[in-house]
Amino acid sequence: MVNTHIRTENLNLWFSENHVLQDVNIPIYDKKITALIGPSGCGKSTLLRCFNRMNDLIPEAKIKGKVFLNEQNIYESRIDVTQVRTKVGMVFQRPNPFPKSIYNNIAYGLKIRGEKKSVINETVEKSLKDSWLWDEVKDRLNESALSLSGGQQQRLCVARALANNPDIILLDEPTSALDPQSTAKIEELCTELKNKVTILIVTHNIAQAGRISDYTAFMYLGDMVEFGETKKMFTVPKDKRTEAYLSGVFG
Amino acid sequence: MFKGITYTASLFTIIVLFGIIATLFSEGLPILKHVNIKDFLTSPNWHPTHFPADFGILSLIVGSLVVTAGALIIAIPLGLGSAIYISEIAGTRSKEIIKPIIELLAGIPSVVYGLFGMAFLSPFLIKVFGIPTGLNAFSASIVLGVMVVPIISSMSEDALSTVPRNLREASFALGATRWETIVQIVLPAARSGVVGSIMLGFGRAIGETMVVIMIAGGAAQIPKSIFQPVRPMTAAIASEMGETVIGSPHFHALFGIAIVLFFITFITNLITEFVFLKKRK
Predict the structure, then answer these.
(1) I need a surface site. Which of A37, A98, A202, B14 has the fewest CB within 10 A?
(2) Parallel, antiparallel, or unpaired: how do β-strands A4-15 and A18-24 relate?
(3) Is the pLDDT of residue B206 over 60?
(4) Domains of chain B (ranges plus CATH)?
(5) Confidence band (pLDDT; 50, 70, 90) for A13?
């Protein structure tokens, strides 16, 4: 039995005159990994950023339609955006740790909500353990996060998101800047994390979607072309465009 | 060829710098024949034309520090505030209007600031505070502060703008508000540039001469309140140099003041370099 965690209803988005998302309807299932795939510029990252209202930061963006998080439309006017963003964590394409210590990178989200020191200490340790970074950094929590390798930095960004205790984690091509080993580690981490949280991952890498996701959504030119179980879609795609993309005809 | 020209240019600059420093010391150090260094630095009595003359420059140093501190107290919040507004809050349009206007302040000659202070600010302060003179440390601080605002504002704004967008996004994505993001992420990340701008503003304020000659009041005394006139080091050097005999003790004393001024800015720069900018890496 799967529950729908997020769903969109006729979601449209424009950047100025550019119609980037066109009537997108998609369910994201609870505690599953859903992959968003498609060629560059198809709107997959933009769609991802609708789920934590990151597109609010772009003045030219105009959004119509609804995004339900636990059946609550997060684009309603009385919604507190910062609340949404603590519930929906995000990991970006390039590792972007703050130029602070490893400890403070993770403590930041907790500090701004005024958590107690003891809670912060506990959460920092737990988040680092959950992102498989603890053993590598436990002796140097006060060192700058920028001293970590790229793969470690990305796991730190995962830990930072986890510290907020989110229900959902959005990953925007989290491994595109990483070497194969670090990539494998992030992928394993995702499969581990889905026991606790819903994961939505944008990826350029079709094989990656095949390896880790339970559901896949294929987007093309702002349209949600096909959505379904990854296994099914990768063996018998319904749409010609999906088939062409998966077999590498374009991309 | 090109390398040669640029090399010569940089070499020339360095030679000029050393020439200035050499002159400063060769003309300034002889004052120590007339007064010992402790009295020179710690006596508040500056009576260079009396007989016997007093060459204590403490009141001049205090005068400089008071107006400079006052200027920074005014300029840091204004400059940093406008930098934050321009870089983080303003839309593209208002940014395009406000930024050049603030930078225009930097292009106004200091003597014009001085005139503004004498003709407008000084009578205004007399009326508002009921003080005997409007030419004092307070009014000089205000005018110097306004002069320093564009330096702090435009340099800090540059520093804030170079903070990568993805750091702001990371902060927002963690549920931080705009204010939390600015104060806890953007400002610390731009710290070295912001501190640099304040230090540059400090150098500008302590080195400024025309404004303090015109507005600071000119009294060589340690002020008991900010509404008393002061005589900053630069004002003493510039206004007295023309009336002194070359090679006289007074002449050497003025160069001695210049050495002190040089050390103050030099040490400030060193501290900035080592304490604040070292951490950049």
Answers:
(1) B14
(2) antiparallel
(3) yes
(4) 2-280 (1.10.3720.10)
(5) very high
Q: Is B247 on the interface with A (CB under 8 A)?
A: no
Q: pLDDT tier at B277 (50, 70, 90 boundaries)?
A: low
Residues recorded for chain B: 281
B192 contacts in A (CB within 8 Å)? none
For residues B210 and B260, give the distance between their C-alpha atoms in angstroms, rounded to a whole number.
19
Round to whole Å and give the CA distance between A164 and B88.
Answer: 25
Q: If you average pLDDT over residues B126-152, what whole number do you get?
A: 95
For residues A148 and A137, is the Cβ–Cβ distance under 8 A?
A: yes
Give me the domain span that covers residue A58.
4-246
- A57 Cα to chain B: minimum distance (Å): 9
pLDDT of the residue at B274: 80
Tell me the pLDDT band of B269, cut-offs 50, 70 and 90. Answer: confident
Contact A92 B169 (CB under 8 A): yes
User: Is residue A107 in a domain?
Assistant: yes
Q: How far apart are CA A89 and CA A161, in angstroms?
A: 5
Q: How many residues does chain A have?
A: 251
User: Is pLDDT of B252 > 50?
Assistant: yes
Q: How many domains does chain A have?
A: 1
CB atoms within 10 A of CB A214: 17
CA pair distance A205, A214, nearest whole angstrom: 15
Spatial distance between the Cα atoms of A99 and A113, rounded to a whole number of angstroms: 20
Q: What one-character-per-residue DSSP string does A154-203 give?
A: HHHHHHHHHHT--SEEEEESTTTTS-HHHHHHHHHHHHHHTTTSEEEEE-
| Interface subset of B 87-116, CB within 8 angstroms of A | 91
> For residue A70, what is the domain's CATH number?
3.40.50.300
Q: Does A159 touch chain B (CB under 8 A)?
A: no
Residue B224 CB partners (closer than 8 Å, separation 6+): none
pLDDT at B280 over 60: no
What is the interface pTM, i.e. ipTM, of the complex? 0.92
Tell me the average pLDDT across B121-139.
94
pLDDT at B281: 44
Torsion angles phi and psi, residue B140, rounded to 5: -65, -40
User: Which tokens sit at B115?
Assistant: 């005139």
Q: Confirm whether A112 is domain-assigned.
A: yes
Please, how many CA atoms are within 13 Å of residue A19, restricted to the half-sphere of its CB?
9
Residue B29 CB partners (closer than 8 Å, separation 6+): B252, B256, B259
Cross-chain CB nearest to A92 (options B91, B166, B175):
B166
Here the tokens at position B150 are: 């564009």
Is residue A31 over pLDDT 70?
yes
In angstroms, the separation between the Cα of residue A250 and the nearest Cα of chain B is 30
| Residue A248 scores a pLDDT above 50 | yes
Q: Can you give the pTM of this predicted structure? A: 0.85
pLDDT band at B51 (very low <50, low <70, confident <90, very high): confident
